[in-house]
Structures are given as C-alpha cells and as structure tokens.
Design goal:
The protein has two domains: 176 residues, 3-Layer(aba) Sandwich (Rossmann fold), CATH 3.40.50.2000; 185 residues, Glycogen Phosphorylase B (Rossmann fold, 3-Layer(aba) Sandwich). It has 14 helices and 14 strands. Strand 7 and strand 8 form a beta hairpin. Helix 9 crosses helix 10. The radius of gyration is 21 Å and the shape is globular. The termini are far apart.
C-alpha cells in the first residue's frame, strides 16, 4: 500500500470520535504510506491542525500542537500531522473550492489511491471509491454496499456489533484490517494560534476576560429536535451557573443558531451570560479555541460536546433520543443527564409521538445540579 484515502465521517462529533483511529493509522503505518483524508467542510474544519490542507506537497498551516495546555512541549508541526493531505467535498457543491461527487471521483482517480478506508456507512460513499477505480476498498458490510467493498468487515463479529457498539470502538475495529493494533481510544484535537487570537477577540467583544473562568453552554444540535434543548431552561440554567459559580457563561452557537443563542442570553438577563451569536464570524476553529480555554462545558449530544471531550474538559452532556452508550467516550468521564422516559432511548431523530419530550421537558434544575457537581469536582 502506497496511497491510502480515508473517507471521514459526515458529522463533526463523529469526526472527533474517529481521531483515535486516525491517530493510530499515522503512528502504525509505514511513513512511506501517503494518507489523504476525504471529508465534508465540517469534519475537516474540526480536525484542523491534524492534517495538511490540500493534496500532498502543499505546505501545512502553522498550528499550536500543545492543545489546551501551553506548558506541554510537542514535535514540530510537520512531524505531528496525521495525514499528508486532504480533499474537501460536498455531494451537491457548486463551489470551485469544494468538490461535488463528480469532482471528487475525478480527484480520486487523478490521485491514484490504491486503498480507501470508509469511516462512513453509506451506500453512496462506497460507490465513490468504486467509480474512482480504487482497487482496495475497506468498510463495514452493511446498508446494501457489500458488493462495492473488497474487504468486508462484518457488522457482528464475536462480541462486537457495529450497530450498537460505541462509535469509537467501531472505527478502531476497521483499522485492524490494515494491521493497526492500538488500544488508545482517547479523542484528540488541536488549536491554532490564529484561533486562539480569534477566541480572545470574541470574548472581549462580549465583555468577557480570560482572567475569569467561563462555562460554555451549547443548547443546539444540527440534526434534530430530539437533540436540542429549550431556550428557556437553557437561559435559566446559564443564569444560575453564573451566579452560583461566580463565572461567566458563553452561549455557543454556529452560524445557523445565532438567533437561538441570542434568545438564551436574553432570558438569562445578566451581563455574566453572553451569546457568541453577536460575533461576526463563527468558524469551527473559534469553537475549538473557546472550548479549549473554558473551565467546563454543558452541551447537548452534538459537536461541541465531542470537542470538549477531546480537550479533556469536564462535560455535562444532555441526551434525548440517542443512547449515550453509542457515543461513549474514553477521556475524562462525562456527566450524562437524561430524563429516563419510558421511550428513551428510541434511537430515532424523529419523535414518533411528535413531542420530543425527552428534550423539551429537560428542566434547568436537573441540569444545574449536574453542573454543580461537576464544577465542584473540578475545583
């Protein structure tokens, strides 16, 4: 094997959970093997600093590879990268900088990969490697794509079941096909110096200072109502945390969640609670840097939760329809908060009762109590 393409998961949180497998590939495969990550903008964005941007041969950006602890020394950036290049795509992209499916197939043909490893489970991504003529194609034999794979990993094998086991473990099982034997399941991310500066500017813009501890609260989720927390309980919890912990609370959001984050700030009605939604730019690098510098994170089961775990932050994770076991993490233990309704966890993104009570009835008092315990443990 000389050139390995790795198809990254489609979601930011899943990309974070794939980092133990991605790290192992670079550490255990021969240095002569060129590794190129293929992914959508979100996953590639959150993994910034771990890979060289563009195809092999381009200069990698300068990243601070010390993570959240500036006292830890690290290797030079070029020796710490886990991938030699990347290809960014979106299935229906019309942008010149982001390939669509056809453009991705052409790019993979040109790159002449001899192996592709799928960290996705979809039929559509399996077709991409086949259409690109990549000789060896590795992935789970599921969702009707077995005939498109050359190395079919059984969904159920011994005590393992890829449909119910933690995602981190599933990714680690896939890399065994390539001879990787690592058992290190800790997730990991990096922060750039530019993103640290952006975080300082963001905090200053809302009246916060790094001299005071702050909590990041994330009530949103990109996928479904059964993962989102209500603005009223979120605002009440944020206010109580700021008062009882004597800290600032930053309401996290992405570009599409500005209004919701601003509503939470309004409900909290205190200068110690502020929304990121008032800041002019919200790249994933900013989220990484803010979370890396926070004292604690309270988040729904979404990308910010996994970013916080990767930086070994104390995390209070709010769960609705999804089984927490499926996204088990192995860094600092999380505090899981769930109502434990009879219908939980249903595993669906669409509530069959049309009320999503697993999240809409999650009260601020329950979350505040969990946050208080985690805050005290970290003091």
């Amino acid at each position: 094997m000389k050139k390995l393409a790795v198809m990254l998961p489609n979601w930011v949180g899943d990309a974070c959970m794939a980092t133990p497998a991605l790290r192992s590939l670079r550490q255990e495969l021969a240095r002569e093997v060129q590794i190129v990550w293929i992914g959508r903008p979100g996953p590639l964005g959150v993994l910034g600093g771990l890979y060289a941007e563009g195809l092999p041969g381009r200069t990698a950006p300068e990243f601070d590879l010390r993570g959240a602890d500036a006292s830890i020394e690290s290797d030079p950036p070029e020796k710490s990268l886990w991938a030699d290049g990347s290809i960014c795509y979106k299935p229906r992209s019309k942008s010149e900088s982001v390939l669509n499916r056809r453009g991705l197939v052409r790019a993979m043909r040109t790159a002449k990969f001899d192996t592709i490893l799928y960290l996705t489970n979809s039929l559509s991504t399996a077709w991409l490697g086949r259409l690109a003529g990549i000789p060896r194609r590795i992935g789970y034999a599921r969702d009707g794509r077995s005939l498109l794979l050359t190395d079919r990993v059984a969904v159920r094998q011994g005590n393992s079941d890829a449909k119910h086991d933690p995602c981190i473990d599933n990714y680690m099982r896939l890399i065994r096909v390539l001879g990787c034997k690592s058992t290190d399941r800790r997730t990991e991310l990096k922060v750039s110096q530019a993103d640290r500066q952006l975080a300082s500017e963001c905090l200053a813009s809302v009246g916060f200072s790094l001299d005071r501890p702050f909590v990041v609260l994330n009530a949103g989720a990109a996928t479904t109502e059964t993962k989102r927390w209500g603005v009223e309980p979120a605002g009440n919890a944020a206010r109580r945390m700021s008062e009882q912990f004597n800290c600032d609370v930053l309401i996290h959001c992405g570009p599409a969640e500005r209004d919701v984050a601003n509503q939470i700030e309004s409900i909290a009605a205190t200068p110690r609670v502020r929304s990121m939604g008032t800041y002019n730019q919200l790249p994933l690098g900013l989220s990484r840097a803010l979370i890396a510098q926070s004292r604690m994170v309270v988040s729904t089961d979404s990308g910010p939760r996994h970013i916080a775990v990767a930086f070994n932050k104390p995390v209070v994770s709010l769960f609705g329809s999804i089984d927490p076991k499926h996204t088990t993490t192995y860094n600092v233990p999380e505090r899981i908060v769930t109502l434990g309704l009879a219908c939980q966890p249903c595993g669906s993104y669409n509530c069959r009762f049309k009320h999503s009570e697993c999240m809409t009835k999650l009260d601020s008092e329950r979350v505040f109590r969990a946050a208080s315990e985690v805050w005290s443990d970290g003091s």
